[in-house]
Amino acid sequence: MLTMKSISGILLVGLLSANAHAADVSVEWKDIESYRDIEAVNGVQERFEQRVMQELTEHWQTLGAQLPEQHKLSIVMTDLDLTGRVEPTFGVGGSSYMRIVDGASYPAMRFSFSYTDAEGKELGSADDVRLRDLGQGSSSKRSIMGSSRDGLYFEKQLMDDWFEKTFKRD
């Protein structure tokens, strides 16, 4: 039987070979049980966590494709608070839950990272990166349209913004 640790390990190995012409990006998910909000809505919690980890790991891989070949970016995720909050709903069929997304329920994440060149020289690192979107971009039409197609749109936007600021190209 697979555990969350073995699933995340398998996920990591499968994604490391995703793009041979980009930086090697590894993502480790630590202590998922302690994350602020990675709660499934009307689904199996373990499958939901696996999907979230896979999609965000793939997004780190996509971002890493912009970095030079043979460089290494290591990410250790330590906390995640998904956009919105889970609330009960009541209807004809009984009660269920839904994730409510509003201006007061913003995404946040914490991680550490290390970035090295082909020779192993450290080019950047941080032990406790804290990203948060306090709703600055969530009211635009573009954000609303994008978020309707991608359940992790706002979390990926946080990652995109951090990546752009951290790895600026001149």
Characterize this entry briefly.
With 170 residues, the protein is of the alpha+beta class. The chain is built from 4 helices and 6 strands. Strands 1-2-5-6 form a 4-stranded mixed beta sheet. A two-stranded antiparallel ribbon has the order 3-4.
Walk me through the structure.
The protein has 170 residues and is of the alpha+beta class. 33% of the residues lie in helices and 29% in strands. It is built from four helices and six strands, in the order H-E-H-E-E-E-E-E-H-H. It has a four-stranded mixed beta sheet with strand order 1-2-5-6. A two-stranded antiparallel sheet has the order 3-4. Helix 1 (4-16) runs parallel beside helix 2. The longest helix has 20 residues, at 45-64. The model is unreliable at 1-19 and 138-142 (pLDDT under 50).
Over the alpha carbons, how many angstroms does the gyration radius reach? 17 Å
Q: What is the string of SSEs from the N terminus onward? A: HEHEEEEEHH
By DSSP, the count of extended strands is 6
* Mean pLDDT figure: 80
Structural class: alpha+beta
Low-confidence stretches: 1-19, 138-142
Distance between the termini: 49 Å
Helix fraction bin? 25-40%
Largest sheet: 4 strands, mixed
Strand proportion, as a percent range, falls in: 25-35%
Net shape? elongated
Spatially, the strands of the biggest sheet line up as 1-2-5-6
Count the DSSP helices: 4
